[in-house]
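quick one: fe (ii) ion bound model?
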Amino acid sequence: MLSSVGPKIYSTPGGLATAVLRREHEAAMRVLNLLDRAVIRLKGKREISPFFFEQVVDFLEIYIGCAHHAKEEEILFPYLKEKSIEVDKIPIDTIHQDHEEEHRLVRQLEIGFELFKLKEPSGAELLIEVAGIYTHIARRHILKENSLFMLADERLSPDDQIYLRARFDLLERNKLYEGTPERLKELVNELERQAFHWE
Ligand SMILES: [Fe+2]
Ligand SMILES: [Fe+2]
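yep, here:
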């Protein structure tokens, strides 16, 4: 039986479900910072591998677009609503619109790197324009959600967090091939290694 109100400070075996989402936000922030730096490089007409953008798109499409957004939209937010946890303070519609917009922009980034790979000048132009919009929306979105997670932490019980975490794990197993989350987490380190020598 899950209790609806829990103490503010407690320990949950395996960590909080909301901590999983926060860690994913941190990984996304690292990629957004790299994307900013890649755009500066493109603007300066410095050499940069199209493969870098391909990997960034891979991360944003699968790790964020497919798994992270689904954990929020299919599991956490409906659960908060079900538990009547400050629903009016959770702008679920806005969050959904942000996700939709992010998905659309990632598809644009994909077109950009395909053109860039073909050495079409429009490829770099598209990447510069879309990456600028994407990073702005994604950062604002993450800040918004991090505040929601603080609210959720205050109101969810340890049992709620354990239940949500189990559902996150199941969703990941259903949506992603085995080993994909680990590969994409390591991909962030790999992208940072690639960018290490950039000025
Ligand atoms: Fe989100
Ligand atoms: Fe998020």
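The radius of gyration is 18 Å.
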